[in-house]
Amino acid sequence: MSEQGHSRPVTRITIVGGGTAGWMAAAAISKVLRGLPGLTIRLVESEAIGTVGVGEATIPQIVGFNQLLGIDEAEFVRETHATYKLGIEFVDWTRLGHRYVHPFGTYGIDMLGIEFHHFWLRGLALGETAGLDDYSIGAVAARAGRYFPPQPGQPNSPLARLAYAFQFDAGRYGAYLRRLAEAQGVVRIEGRVVQVHQHPETGFVTAVQMENGDMVDGELFIDCSGFRSLLLGEALGVPFIDWSKWLPCDRAVAMPCSSAGPDQPITRSTARPAGWQWRIPLQHRIGNGHVYASAFLDDDAALDLLLANLDGRPLADPNRIRFTGGHRARLWDRNVVALGLAGGFLEPLESTAIHLVQAGIARLMAYFPSLDFTPKEIDRFNVETAREYLDIRDFLVLHYKATTRDDSEFWNYCRTLEPPDGLREKLEMFRSSGRVIREHNELFTETSWLSVMAGQGIVAGGWHPAAEILDEGELKRRLGHVRQVIAQAVGQMPTQEQFLREQGSAI
Ligand code: FAD
């Protein structure tokens, strides 16, 4: 006990697993806690087991993570062969032949202090035909293949409303973070963990045993061992909450292909008869994968469909992955915290997995334990984490539920499924009044919920009464002005290719 009556902070941390999750944790924790006396961080990983090898698209929160690590963006983009990402384009989700963008950033401009989309909704009723995409600088720039960084210091420019993320080579990202972490004192131990040792009474993990007999001990263990969940799932037996009823996709087959260079700064998701296909353009190749429900499509047919829909020459053998949507009932149990796939997985439709790792690290830092591991903090960590998974789940389910597709058994299942309660409430509110509910600062903002609800063809039954303040002529004039200002700003942006060259990030 210290003078204040608290036990001392944990200082000996062992991370099991060196995928994206493990190296993100190692890099961030060694940076944040660098002044802590006696801090020792070790990371155990097995080259023979390898990493999951996918995970290339991110969301804007990663920009803050990189800043925390003091990463130079131009160098980072070059090293990870990254491109910029301004949103996700959804093709054939609402109905065959339809497309819409879920952009980062916000729509329109500030209009009388209420959300822009209420004016857009009223405009539609008055015969305006422009879709929401035309009011998003991110969507318009992405489709034009252009990129320029947001300009928060110019509040009158649409560039102030832009937000961005990256698409990168996950293997290169891991290697980049490893260099950072090792430079900050993290010690890497190569080899396979064969046994997890626990205290006979408390069940706390005391050490992991390597294949060569070496023991790696620790006070706090961070389980980043991937789907196997070696410590939290296998050793501590924390059960898995299975959400496959709402998220029936349970397999993926991934395969990169050649590309002609950086193209549109956007991830594309194209709906398929029993799932969907991702397309992530990097500087040196395009990442592709087909996510599907094995109850509706067999593995060979899934691969055939992927191969038939590549833009270039295949660059690797197919990487087949099985998963279940859901998460461990507690991501922190005793002295084990799980990050990444060891804690849970929600399919990559909205590129949230790397963010969940980042959020888990931030939460672990907020509730960083003392040696007495007080249950209050641990419970709080678990409540907040479960809430975050649930919010994201509901957002993902929205994409499946709000479809008009009836051309396959899979889509019939999705269209007719009972939505979870939180999602039902959001749908009812939007349908009746055009309002978008955002709970407790959840990850996806009003813009995100709106873009997917409107994009998937849900019709709002009304708009905010204040949208009536402008007369019809003034409303249409202002809407036209917003579209024009956005189009002009995009016209002045460089292409992504030019920008990468000028920034010194092109490979
Ligand atoms: P892994 O990469 O599996 O790493 C596990 C580590 O544990 C490895 O280093 C392994 O060697 C080690 N290990 C395991 N067992 C042992 C042992 N016994 N001894 C020693 N070491 C061991 N995320 C996004 O943000 N965007 C995306 O676009 C995206 N797309 C995805 C698509 C698919 C199909 C899947 C499955 C995931 C996707 N993800 C995406 C998620 C992303 O890939 C992962 O969240 C991220 O890579 C973290 O993985 P991980 O580090 O938890 O696990």
Show the helix and strand layout:
Layout: E1 12-16, H1 20-32, E2 40-45, H2 61-68, H3 73-79, E3 83-85, E4 87-91, E5 99-103, H4 116-125, H5 137-144, E6 165-167, H6 170-183, E7 187-190, E8 193-198, E9 205-210, E10 215-217, E11 220-223, H7 230-235, E12 240-242, E13 251-254, E14 267-272, E15 275-281, E16 286-292, H8 299-307, E17 319-322, E18 326-328, E19 332-333, E20 336-338, E21 344-345, H9 353-366, H10 375-401, H11 409-416, H12 421-433, H13 446-455, H14 472-491, H15 496-503
Parallel strand pairs: 1-2, 1-11, 2-7, 4-14, 11-20
Antiparallel strand pairs: 3-6, 4-5, 8-9, 9-10, 12-18, 13-16, 13-17, 14-15, 15-16, 18-21, 19-20
Helix pairs in contact: 1-6, 1-9, 5-14, 9-10
The structure holds flavin-adenine dinucleotide.
Principal-axis shape:
globular
The CATH architecture of the domain at 12-51 and 169-244 and 324-373 can be named as: 3-Layer(bba) Sandwich
Tally the helices. 15
Q: How many β-strand runs?
A: 21
Oligomer: single chain
Give a short account of the largest sheet: 7 strands, mixed
Mean pLDDT: 95
Can you say what the CATH homologous superfamily of the domain at 12-51 and 169-244 and 324-373 is? FAD/NAD(P)-binding domain
Strand order of the largest sheet: 5-4-14-15-16-13-17
CATH classification class of the domain at 12-51 and 169-244 and 324-373: Alpha Beta
Beta-strand portion reads 15-25%
Look up the CATH topology of the domain at 12-51 and 169-244 and 324-373.
Answer: FAD/NAD(P)-binding domain
Distance between the amino and carboxyl termini? 53 Å
The helicity comes to 25-40%
Which spans have pLDDT < 50 for at least 5 consecutive residues?
none
Q: Radius of gyration, rounded? A: 24 Å
Bound molecules: flavin-adenine dinucleotide
Structural class by helix and strand composition: alpha+beta
Protein name: Tryptophan halogenase
Active site: 85
Pfam family, one: Trp_halogenase
Keywords: FAD, Flavoprotein, Nucleotide-binding
